[in-house]
Amino acid sequence: MEVYISNSRGQTVEIGENLGKTLNGGEVVAFRGDLGSGKTCFTSGLAKGLGYKGDVTSPTFALINEYLGGRLPLYHFDMYRISSWDELYSCGFFEYIEEGGVVAAEWSENIESALPDNTIYVEFEKTGENSRKITVFKKGEENS
C-alpha cells in the first residue's frame, strides 16, 4: 500500500504517471472517490505514463474513452450509471480487460463484484481545496 499527498493538479498527474510507467497490460485500475476528487486528473497522468500524448477527458457521457498510441492502450470507463451485469457486459468491460491494455474505472464501487483479482485500487480523499490523499493498493491489501 502506498499513500501520497498531492497539493496540486500537477502532483496528482505525476502520481498517476508514475503508476502508469509500472504497468505491463492486463491491469484494472479501480478508482474510488467523490466527484471532483482527482480521478480524471490522475487518469491523465496514467495515460502519460503509458506514453499517450493527447488530452484526457472524463468519460461521463461517453461511458468509455479509448486512449491509443502509447506503449499500451488505456480504456477509461465511467461506471457511475452501471447498475447491472447486463449493462457491464453490453459496454464491453470484460472484452476490454482481455485486450491486454490497461482499464481505468471511475466509480468502481458500482462494479466491485466484477473486478478481477489483480485489480489496483486508487482511493482519493479531499483533504483541502487543492490537496488530496491518494492511496494505491492491490485487491486484498485494504486492511493491511
Total domain count:
1
Helix content: 25-40%
Poorly predicted parts: none
The backbone outline, from C-alpha atoms, is globular
CATH class: Alpha Beta
Which strand order spans the largest sheet, edge to edge or round the barrel? Answer: 1-7-6-2-5-4-3
CATH architecture: 3-Layer(aba) Sandwich
C-alpha Rg (nearest Å): 14 Å
The H/E string reads EHEHEEHHEEE
| Distance, first to last CA | 8 Å
Largest sheet: 7 strands, mixed
The CATH H-level superfamily is P-loop containing nucleotide triphosphate hydrolases
Number of strands: 7
Determine the CATH topology: Rossmann fold
Structure class:
alpha/beta
Output mean pLDDT.
90
The number of helical elements comes to 4
Strand content: 25-35%
Provide an overview of this structure:
The protein is of the alpha/beta class and 144 residues long. The chain has one domain (2-138): 3-Layer(aba) Sandwich (Rossmann fold). The protein is 26% helix and 26% strand. The chain contains four helices and seven strands. The chain has helices at residues 9-22, 39-49, 85-90, 93-98; strands at 2-6, 28-32, 64-67, 74-78, 102-106, 120-126, 132-138. A seven-stranded mixed beta sheet has the order 1-7-6-2-5-4-3. A hairpin with a 5-residue loop joins strand 6 (120-126) and strand 7. The N and C termini lie close together (8 Å).
Sum up the structure in keywords.
alpha/beta, 7 strands
Topology:
Blueprint (H helix, E strand, L loop, with lengths): L1 E5 L2 H14 L5 E5 L6 H11 L14 E4 L6 E5 L6 H6 L2 H6 L3 E5 L13 E7 L5 E7 L6
Parallel strand pairs: 2-5, 2-6, 4-5
Antiparallel strand pairs: 1-7, 3-4, 6-7
Helix pairs in contact: 1-2
